Amino acid sequence: MVISDLPFTKQSQSCFCDNSVEEKQYMLTTSDLHTTKGGRRNSTLICAPIMAESVDEMLVQMRKANEAGADIVEIRLDYLKNFIPRQDLEILIKRSPLPAIVTYRPVWEGGQYDGNESKRQDALHLASEIGADYIDIELKVAHEFYNSIQLKKPGKAKIIVSSHNYQNTPSVEEIAELVARIQATGADIVKIATTALDITDSARMFQVLVHSHVPMIGLVMGEKGLISRILSPKFGGFLTFGSLEPGVVSAPGQPTIKELLDLYNFREIASDTKVHGVIGNPVSHSKSPHLYNAAFKSVGFDGIYLPLLVDSVEDFLTTYSSPDFVGYSYTTPHKEAGLNCSDEVDPIAKIIGAINCMIKRPTDGKLIGYNFDYIGAIAAIEEGLRALNRTANISGSPLAGKLLVVMGAGGAGKSLAYGGKEKGARVVVANRTLAKAKELASKVGGKAITLAELENFHPEDGMVLVNTTSVGMKPRCHATPIPKKALKHYSLVFDAIYSPKETRLLREAQESGVAVVYGTEMLINQGFEQFEKFTGLPAPKQLMRDVLARNT
Ligand code: NAP
Q: N or C: which end of the chain has fewer CB within 10 A?
């Protein structure tokens, strides 16, 4: 499924849907929506799941949800121990500071309740009678519920009819058919949650969401479905879930309310917002979303930047080929795949054999690959060497003539080896897989050794060591690519890893009296270049430095 033909703009959305994003807003009972400084540009609600074992604890969570900026809460009755329906619902519904969805999820739909079904439905009827804004009922029993509701005292609640698929995400046709079945029950709001096996699964949900004639919650669960939760407003979703705390979620993959509001500028996402992101695997450690989202906001650029957990670069680019998906950073292990998927490649990136940035050219939609990695890293290393040799009067690069040992032969390794050669260094490539070290060394006229050989590698003193392997990166911070005792032969050590900032390698280098340069320098310098490519505007350098300092 390709989403190049989706109606992404507001104008075209209203051509395809009876209920455009704006129209859908009138259907909400939420009257006091929070607004951000930049102004709210969408009507998608942030819903905080309230999951606690006691009513008191639920009230505390509701207050926190309100303070955090949620619009609505979902009271999960199935989490309550010793639930006394009338008494507890009176308290929860009447004291909720926000509009409430009441959900009593049974085990057979992924919830906690495994008691009597008619008692469960009775509690939901009661919630409606007491004044809940929304009731969530599962598709499997929706007809039964609707039949019985005719006999009970009507409440004001709107009915969300929900369907959860914990295995996969079906085809567009199947999701659309499910929407029709849910609509046929008389639902006020359709809710479909599926499971992401691949990042491209969210595209099918977007396609259905954007065409939906009824208010719809369409979310794809799991880490690979994160994009469906954050971009929900772009496609007119009724709500997205935001947890109160990281990891305390009612379904896998939920971001926190704070992340939605502060990191992803959720209120400012509109149907024409341009989508950017970092393509990698793993990618959740990346600081780039912090960096670019803050920078976009500071200059008023209508863009969002996401972590994109991608298995196949080609599948991702083919699926998200719409003109609104416009720019990507590339990280491990996709820098070479990114180059292979580029329509045109910057000459430097071609020599290095990897890209770290890709832009969709607005005029013809062609994908252009760049490599900015080496610029930032080499400049930072040169600066470090100059600081070491303050008394020496060096003209030209202080790397000229130095022995530069590059650990790693992946994307970053290629950038550093190429950059070092350009500056006149003699390059040695040390890699776990010797064949890759040999291939890179031959390109830069250098020598190849294995990583293990570095322990006793000491042809001269004053060498420069750079780590471009992922050894020592979070969460395996205890690891290091080279024994500490070998570090004393180097004058300076640079580690491309920036998460954590202080790696074990850099800590041991300092303990050995060796100068160090942090990976954050490489990140920030290439970040300036990427920002300028994404936006066409000068990078807000101080702001980007401050954001990075706060997040490393
Ligand atoms: P990549 O293309 O996947 O290359 C990974 C390299 O790490 C390969 O040389 C690989 O060796 C080696 N490696 C992986 N696991 C290893 C292990 N257990 N033992 C020994 N060697 C191992 O990745 P990349 O894009 O070059 O990125 C590498 C690192 O640099 C990452 O930590 C990334 O975050 C960091 N980086 C930082 C910046 C920045 O701005 N500061 C920019 C780019 C990258 P084999 O060939 O044997 O598999």
A: N
